[in-house]
Amino acid sequence: MTRGAFLFQRLLRLDQLHDGLKARFRLGRHELLLVCVGTEVFILDARCPHAGADLGRGSLSGYQLRCPGHGQTFDVRAGGRAGQPARYPVVYDGQWLGVEL
Predict the structure, then answer these.
(1) Architecture, CATH, for domain 2-85+92-100
(2) Nearest 5 degrees, angle CA 38-CA 6-CA 81?
């Protein structure tokens, strides 16, 4: 589905979401990490902005995601700020959750 200049990319059905979920996706050149905390969903770059480690292998405690490479923690709500992984807007389309790239 096309919306403006962006292309909607389905990631998961809504019934697949659960607290603590971390799911990795590769969409073209983008490596994304979907994180679910309670009923909130966040989509971030899957690589640590400092060390390049796979954040999908990191531990999640509440909103804190720990880099498996160098141990720094990131608040998933703060994505896109200096020193944080980039964050992408979550898009809902019927029973699907996705991202527009």
Answers:
(1) 3-layer Sandwich (2.102)
(2) 50
**What average pLDDT does range 30-36 have in this prediction?**
96
In this model, does residue 64 exceed pLDDT 60? yes
Quote the tokens at residue 55: 């954040």
List the domain boundaries for the chain: 2-85+92-100
On the 0-12 / 13-18 / 19+ scale of CB atoms within 10 A, 54 is middle
Tell me how far apart the alpha carbons of residues 25 and 5 are, in angstroms, rounded to a whole number. Answer: 21
* pTM beyond cutoff 0.85: yes
Q: What mean pLDDT comes out for the span 69-88? A: 89
Q: Is 93:1 a contact under the CB 8 Å cutoff? A: yes
The per-residue pLDDT for 51 is 82
- Please count the CA atoms within 13 angstroms of the CA of 84 that sit on its side-chain side: 16
